[in-house]
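sry for the spam today, last one i promise. struct tokens for design, 435 residues
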């Protein structure tokens, strides 16, 4: 195991400390490793500090340094690291590392993005084999521990009655609003929109081409979007048609979330996630903050990557100016000034009830900003709790008695027909027992 730390800031590694945005932590990291380090407990921080590090700059024309982390501290949106180089190992030109990059799990273009990855590879072993190190004075531990597998502490329910009891037992302030989401496999799905999903090696499926996905669907189905005023409206409709977007579906009806937790993967434990937030933090379809975040979908990946949150003239950047141009297309009155932190938020949005599915599912959305990451344990604005669900078949039958089924959750005639046909299909066992 080792840490790969890349920055675009020239001279950054000449200082004894550096700050990474949390959203860049665990990029280009295998899913199994990423999941383990999602919450940085003291023991996991110590584990990260025990791994050797590559300190690199963006681009392939700079030397890398080998060293280790001496301190890791969470500071709001930032991770503050302190570090030291191994003085027995001289700088290594990246051009010497490049031939063995696949062996170190350094991927195409990875060296061109500021981020902090954790790699499941033997750094010193690979460098020694490639002849880039001698085996003297290497400060590597004899055996590197891998991160432990997380164990759930969420309560478990196996009936609708038990689930309702858990939901009603939660104390709520009148100024709070609560939403829910169901996952059919608690060990597989995370709190991330489909646009941000990765393969098992940590590579994004769709994020690189977000602006192309958006435009291609508009080109091929323009008539379907004619009534949409805002980019958010279009994203909601695209989400409805299963296009990957930066929206995550949630619902105000806990039984709908329970249905989704049970409707597939019958042999896996599901879960219902509860999101609690101040009512003042809930946005509506015409929110300026929602417009700022939604229109990121129209900005090419390269331009999004150029946006810097560290400079004083944030709105003077060409990428931000183009984003403002998109916003003013739907809101001509919009003052050309974006609050930088707004662009990186995760906000709860109530969209228009533009189709029967949103209405029937009491739907709302979490809208993810630039590089936004939802901590699996919640954020300062959004509290997250979980309920594990098993005995799915029984729960689905109980939900059916409450008129929550495929016909009512997905109110289209083909789904209603499928539900009715299945419900009244001839069953030999039932036929014999009824005689």
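last one done:
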């Amino acid at each position: 195991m080792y840490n790969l730390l890349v920055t675009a800031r020239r001279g950054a590694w000449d200082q004894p400390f550096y700050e990474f945005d949390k959203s860049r932590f665990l990029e280009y990291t295998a899913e199994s490793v990423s999941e383990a380090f999602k919450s940085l407990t003291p023991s996991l921080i110590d584990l990260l500090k025990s791994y050797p590090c590559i300190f690199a700059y963006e681009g392939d024309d700079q030397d890398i340094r080998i060293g280790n982390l001496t301190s890791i501290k969470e500071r709001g949106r930032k991770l503050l690291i302190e570090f030291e180089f191994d003085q027995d190992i001289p700088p290594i030109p990246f051009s010497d590392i490049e031939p063995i990059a696949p062996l170190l799990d350094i991927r195409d273009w990875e060296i061109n993005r500021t981020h902090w990855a954790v790699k499941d590879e033997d750094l010193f072993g690979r460098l020694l084999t490639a002849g880039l190190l001698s085996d003297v004075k290497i400060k590597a531990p004899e055996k590197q521990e891998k991160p432990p597998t997380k164990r759930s502490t969420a309560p478990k329910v196996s009936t609708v009655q038990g689930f309702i009891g858990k939901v009603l037992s939660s104390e709520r302030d009148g100024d709070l609003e609560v939403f829910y989401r169901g996952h059919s496999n608690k060990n597989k799905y995370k709190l991330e929109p489909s646009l941000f999903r990765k393969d098992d090696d940590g590579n994004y499926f769709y994020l690189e081409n977000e602006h192309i996905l958006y435009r291609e669907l508009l080109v091929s189905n323009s008539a379907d979007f004619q009534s949409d005023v805002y980019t958010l409206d279009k994203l909601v409709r695209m989400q409805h048609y299963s296009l990957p977007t930066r929206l995550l579906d949630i619902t105000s009806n806990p039984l709908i979330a329970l249905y989704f937790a049970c409707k597939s993967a019958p042999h896996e434990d599901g879960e219902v996630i509860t999101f609690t937030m101040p009512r003042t933090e809930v946005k509506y379809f015409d929110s300026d903050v929602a417009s700022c975040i939604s229109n990121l979908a129209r900005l090419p990946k390269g331009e999004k990557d150029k946006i810097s949150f560290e400079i004083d003239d944030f709105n003077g950047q060409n990428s931000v100016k183009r984003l403002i141009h998109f916003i003013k297309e739907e809101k001509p009155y919009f003052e050309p000034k974006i609050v930088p932190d707004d662009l990186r938020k995760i906000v709860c949005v109530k969209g228009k009830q533009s189709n029967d599915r949103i209405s029937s599912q009491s739907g709302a959305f979490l809208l993810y900003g630039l590089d936004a990451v939802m901590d699996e344990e919640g954020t300062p604005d959004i509290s997250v709790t979980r309920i594990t669900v098993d005995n799915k078949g029984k729960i689905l039958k109980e939900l059916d008695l409450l008129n929550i089924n495929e016909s009512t959750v997905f109110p289209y005639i083909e789904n209603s027909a499928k539900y009715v046909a299945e419900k009244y299909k001839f069953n030999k066992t039932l036929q014999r027992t009824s005689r």
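The first helix runs from residue 31 to 36. ok im logging off now
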